[in-house]
Write a structure and sequence with these properties.
The chain has about 290 residues and is mainly α. It has a domain at about 185-275. The protein contains 14 helices and no strands. The chain has helices at about 1-25, 35-45, 50-60, 70-80, 85-90, 100-115, 120-125, 135-145, 155-160, 170-180, 185-195, 200-205, 210-230, 235-280. The radius of gyration is 36 Å and the shape is elongated.
Length: about 290
């Protein structure tokens, strides 16, 4: 009888332990707001290229965990969503005492480059506190590229092309020639040509249709002015004379403006061509990620 009671008691105790274990497993919930889970979620978002939400997770994790890789990913998340100024500031926190210092310095320069203040960027490359030893050549490439965008004299090709591999020098030489000797049209020349022959300035800038329209309209108005004066219709003669003068002056002004628009288009197309060329090649920079 005692043995039977002992067995019953033991069986009951085992069932009780199993029930408690299962209940604990069933009802215990992980702390999804802990640094561990937020880091795992942040890394998942980062891998999925959801950089904005990854940034917010990493920022919260860094309140309790100080880790260089997390700091780098936070800064890189800002870089990926084009918040370049903030990205640069966060990469700077890894400059000293970090195993990722050199990579952070390169990414700092990339962030600074995309702020599009090229004069300031070139000055930045000269500051010793920011310079990188491992990626010095890569930073020099970015510095060389800035010269293609600014309205300043280009440095000598030996300096400009030096950071790049010989295989791309031919393409860079083409950009150099386009930048140094642009095929601009002179607004003054366009105006003078149209003052001699209405529409000639538009032909000079390649606007043939406008040139024909300008010539015909000015000639027609001039003819009407002369015809009316010959017919002694002075009012209509002076009216058409005034209209002829307006069209003639407008044609001269329009030709000068057409030359300026032509030049702006040349600059725009050149800058787009340069930008596309380097973008497709990631500016000849290594892709850094951790």
């Amino acid at each position: 009888m005692a043995n039977s009671l002992n067995k019953t008691s033991l069986l009951f105790n085992n069932f009780a332990l199993i029930f408690i274990f299962m209940s604990a497993s069933l009802f215990a919930q992980p702390d999804f707001f802990s640094a561990k889970y937020r880091l795992e979620f942040g890394n998942y978002l980062y891998a999925e290229k959801d950089y904005l939400r990854a940034f917010h997770e990493f920022r919260n994790v860094l309140k309790t965990i100080d880790n260089d890789t997390i700091r780098f990913r936070l800064a890189n998340s800002l870089f990926k969503i084009s918040r370049m100024s903030e990205a640069a500031d966060n990469f700077k926190t890894l400059f000293f005492g970090s195993a990722l210092s050199e990579e952070a310095r390169l990414m700092f320069y990339q962030s600074a480059y995309f702020l599009n203040d090229h004069k300031w960027f070139r000055e930045l490359t000269e500051q010793e506190n920011y310079q990188t030893t491992k990626y010095k050549n890569e930073v020099e490439r970015l510095k060389s590229i800035t010269y293609f965008y600014d309205k300043i004299s280009l440095p000598d090709t030996n300096i400009l092309f030096k950071p790049f591999h010989d295989s791309v020098h031919t393409r860079l030489a083409k950009f150099y020639k386009q930048k140094k000797y642009p095929q601009y049209k002179s607004p003054t020349a366009a105006a003078v040509l149209s003052s001699v022959i209405p529409g000639a300035g538009k032909i000079y800038t390649g606007e043939i249709g406008d040139a024909v329209a300008a010539f015909l309209s000015t000639a027609a108005l001039a003819y009407l002015a002369v015809s009316n004066f010959n017919a002694e219709h002075k009012f209509r003669g002076w009216l058409f004379t005034g209209l002829t003068a307006v069209f003639y002056g407008g044609n001269i002004y329009g030709s000068a403006a057409a030359a300026q628009i032509y030049n702006a288009r040349i600059r725009f197309n050149f800058e787009n061509e340069v930008k596309l060329y380097f973008e497709e090649r990631n500016y000849f920079l290594p892709r850094i990620d951790f």
